[in-house]
Amino acid sequence: MTQHASSDNNAKTTVLAFIEALNKEDFDKAREYVNEDLSFIGVLGTRHGAEPYFGDMKKMKFKYDIKKAFAEGDDVCLLYDINMGKTTIFACGWYQLAGGKISTFKVVFDPRPILEVK
Question: pTM of the predicted model, to two decimals?
């Protein structure tokens, strides 16, 4: 296995373990996979720092159904359905790792189904 392929696999394994922990609502375990200065950029807002991000996740308890995962070096891309309780949306998440942990991630999706839910 080349060094590049090994790096791809490690980054992908980290991100998938993070998502699995979120799905199990094991937020302490999920936090082990992110840097404390985590930056989350989403369609409906941003969070800077692991504390505000996990504060929100504990309330929302989203569930992720991964359809496809791609990795290149310290970048991982997931295509997934996110069950938000009242609605499920298809989204793309771009996770960037630093020091073996998730440092930044961006989630992109069409927000109309969420905005239309009353």
Answer: 0.91
